[in-house]
Q: What sequence folds into this?
């Protein structure tokens, strides 16, 4: 487990999306690519009509409204393994407001190379969509004293409306990695 954490830390440390900040504002990306997220075969964009987004997702995934949800949120599940959560979407006024894609499955224990490959894929997609001017932040959740409490460390890469979270969590000796990509109509930070 610690090898996985160290490998992931080494992989993430040299992240430098822009060597020349003046290049961050150049329009080298197809229009709308920054405001899109691909979940399986569905290409979702902020502001798209709810019916269109749910129809696109429904071709590939099972969709459910979580119990007790306030608002218009849907969870996205694998059709063949209904316990596998793929992501979720939220709509406001009939338009896509936010989407989250889970790149990892919390039911799987990833090796260091597997985790590094996922991180590589996430950031390759992030850069290919034109996200260059990004901010990095970290946080740690320390457990109360005593055995059995959950501890986590999170690294967030935020690029305006898009965020990638790499979360390492463990309880006692067992641990897991979670990598999520999210897109929101409300920017996570102002890149200007």
A:
């Amino acid at each position: 487990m610690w090898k996985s954490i160290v490998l992931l830390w080494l992989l993430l440390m040299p992240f430098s999306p822009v060597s020349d900040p003046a290049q961050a504002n150049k329009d080298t990306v197809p229009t709308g690519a920054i405001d899109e997220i691909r979940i399986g075969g569905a290409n979702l964009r902020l502001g798209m009509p709810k019916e269109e987004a749910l129809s696109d997702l429904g071709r590939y995934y099972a969709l459910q409204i979580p119990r007790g949800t306030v608002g218009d949120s849907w969870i996205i599940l694998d059709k063949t393994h209904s316990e596998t959560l793929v992501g979720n979407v939220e709509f406001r006024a009939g338009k896509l407001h936010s989407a989250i894609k889970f790149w990892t499955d919390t039911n799987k224990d990833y090796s260091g190379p597997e985790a590094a490959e996922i991180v590589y894929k996430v950031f390759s997609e992030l850069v290919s969509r034109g996200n260059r001017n990004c901010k990095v932040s970290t946080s740690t959740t320390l457990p109360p004293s005593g055995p059995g409490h959950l501890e986590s460390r999170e690294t967030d890469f935020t690029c305006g409306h898009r965020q990638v979270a790499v979360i390492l969590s463990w309880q006692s000796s067992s641990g897991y990695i979670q990598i999520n990509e999210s897109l929101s109509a409300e920017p996570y930070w102002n890149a200007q």
